[in-house]
Design brief:
single chain; 368 residues; alpha+beta; Beta Polymerase, domain 2; two-stranded antiparallel sheet; 18 helices
Length: 368
């Protein structure tokens, strides 16, 4: 039984990037032998094991055969006879189909190291076209490695377009589409993800709301955003604000319902769409308007919502005065100190109490 480091860890090591996860392939092993050595089985569809002291995954070498539709439509075969090269051959891209022998020797049967050097995303075999999820994965790799100037090999892009025309994309679950999109949103250049899907002729099927997006303009905005706010939520909000221009609220709800977008993403996008102009013009707002915004965004109870929205608003309204941030947070701190107790002691209650609290808040908002 031999154990090899494989996949992304090998790729990132060769690129000089931080290795976050290590995956291992076991050649010549069996489930019984793995459990005898203390590995804990976790795989449902094929034999995968966790090493208890590291939490890392160890999979028995396997082959796969297309047996249905979508990315789950495969039959896997794992046995001690499956070789390392056979296991690597089923992977998506050559840069992900390398392994490291226990003695440190690089095993690279499909030219992954050369493709890394040439900054190419190239498929391992024609079987690439059997898995529609690979269109999304390649797009995500393009977003992640955009700063390194990677390009998709022409023949691989052709296969991606074939997948788009095959009807297989329709078998991808909404949850899996969102998972890949969310991972791309966390990269430095998420617009590249959408642009790549567009090149693969998959964008209209998977995320049609972004088909009319000005990729170049959004790229510039997102580069500025990422300098201060790297959150996936803010990237999603900005992309939605730029793309959903007909009936923004309706489009946003339809998009989020269709792709199963988590509420925190939906909320930030909605807040940005509804309030970015008002946030940018707080200096010119009345005290009543300021309080309406603060209450609508629930900023007294959740002041942490303000910072990302202010940053996004400033991107959309460059003349926005830089002192607005500090003054808004100062006002929120003052509003948090407003208490009903002094008015209750004065005997106020009901509508009178509410009016007194509102008047005090308005007075503080006047001094913004």
């Amino acid at each position: 039984m031999e154990i090899f480091l494989v996949g992304g860890a090998v790729r990132d090591q060769l690129l000089g990037l931080e290795i976050k996860d290590r995956d291992w392939v076991v050649v010549g092993g069996t489930p019984e032998l793995m459990q005898q050595q203390g590995f804990r089985p976790v795989g449902k569809d094929f034999p995968v094991f966790i090493k208890p002291d590291t939490g890392e995954e160890y999979a028995l070498a396997r082959t796969e055969r297309k047996s249905g539709h979508g990315y789950q439509g495969f039959t896997f075969h794992a046995s001690p006879e499956v070789t390392l090269e056979q296991d690597l051959q089923r992977r998506d891209l050559t840069i992900n189909a390398m392994a490291v022998h226990p003695d440190g020797t690089l095993i690279d049967p499909f030219g992954g190291q050369q493709d890394l050097q040439q900054r190419k995303l190239r498929h391992v075999s024609a079987a690439f076209a059997e898995d529609p999820l690979r269109v999304l994965r390649v797009a995500r790799f393009m977003a992640r490695f955009a700063a390194l100037n990677f390009q998709i090999a022409p023949e691989t892009l052709t296969l991606m377009q074939q997948i788009s025309h095959s009807g297989e994309l329709g078998h991808l679950s909404a949850e899996r589409v969102w998972m890949e999109f969310e991972r791309a949103l966390a990269t430095t250049q998420p617009v590249i993800f959408l642009h790549c899907l567009d090149q693969a002729q998959a964008l209209e099927q998977l995320l049609p709301d972004f088909c009319e997006l000005d990729f170049s303009h959004c790229q510039q905005l997102l580069q500025q955003l990422k300098a201060n706010d790297t959150s996936a939520e803010s990237s999603f909000a900005l992309l939605c604000q730029q793309a959903l221009t007909q009936e923004p609220s309706v489009q946003l709800n339809n998009l989020c319902d269709r792709v199963k977008v988590p509420n925190r993403f939906r909320q930030r996008a909605r807040d940005l769409m509804d309030w970015h102009t008002r946030l940018a013009t707080l200096d010119h707002s009345s005290a009543k308007e300021r309080m309406a915004l603060i209450k609508a965004l629930k900023l007294i109870r959740t002041p942490e919502r303000a910072a990302p929205l202010l940053g996004l608003s400033r991107l959309l309204h460059p003349p926005m005065h830089k002192s607005i941030d500090a003054r808004l947070f100062q006002l929120l701190a003052q509003l948090q100190q407003v208490s009903a107790e002094p008015f209750i002691l004065q005997g106020l209650q009901g509508k009178a109490l509410g009016k007194a609290l509102e008047d005090q808040q308005q007075q503080l908002a006047e001094g913004f």
